[in-house]
């Protein structure tokens, strides 16, 4: 394999990782609009990075065994989860209660990370069918999605202080809209 081929493959994987990580950035931007500590932002980014490693890895393994028919199902599930998370944040912003139903902590963080990484499962299916280099692919996906999540969360945290009490409703609207986009992209 020539150096040019390796560089082209690496460039392609980075572009794919950026495309996959943009949903984590967008959703991180929305989640950053709720009050989060820096420690929480760190853990959220790492968790999403890990999910962006595990989900395409599982997809690649299954993709090598099966066809890519599961890709549509994974995208629909991800869209549905984002709509639910977004709606919950919107309703919680108008509620008198201080604590939202789902927060990016514990099981809420798992649901959040799963919702933004389901599309990487479907990409993993495709890459598995074409025989991409597994370790390199998932490492690039995980690192880039983690960094993009941190950027989104930090920007959201900064904007949250500017718009005050409306920030959670805005964040929920972003998640909701992104979920709709995933569902109706077919």
Automatic annotation (TrEMBL):
- Asked whether the UniProt record includes Transmembrane helix among its keywords, one would answer yes
UniProt subcellular location: Cell membrane
Where does the sequence pass through the membrane? Answer: 12-34, 41-66, 72-94, 106-129, 135-154, 166-184
Q: Which UniProt keywords apply?
A: Cell membrane, Ion transport, Manganese, Membrane, Transmembrane, Transmembrane helix, Transport
Protein origin, superkingdom: Bacteria
Q: How does it sit in the membrane?
A: Multi-pass membrane protein
HAMAP family tied to this protein: MntP_pump
Stated family: Belongs to the MntP (TC 9.B.29) family.
What is the documented function of this protein?
Answer: Probably functions as a manganese efflux pump.
Which protein are we looking at? Putative manganese efflux pump MntP
Report the source organism: Metabacillus niabensis
Phylogenetic placement of the source organism: Bacteria, Bacillati, Bacillota, Bacilli, Bacillales
What gene codes for this chain? mntP
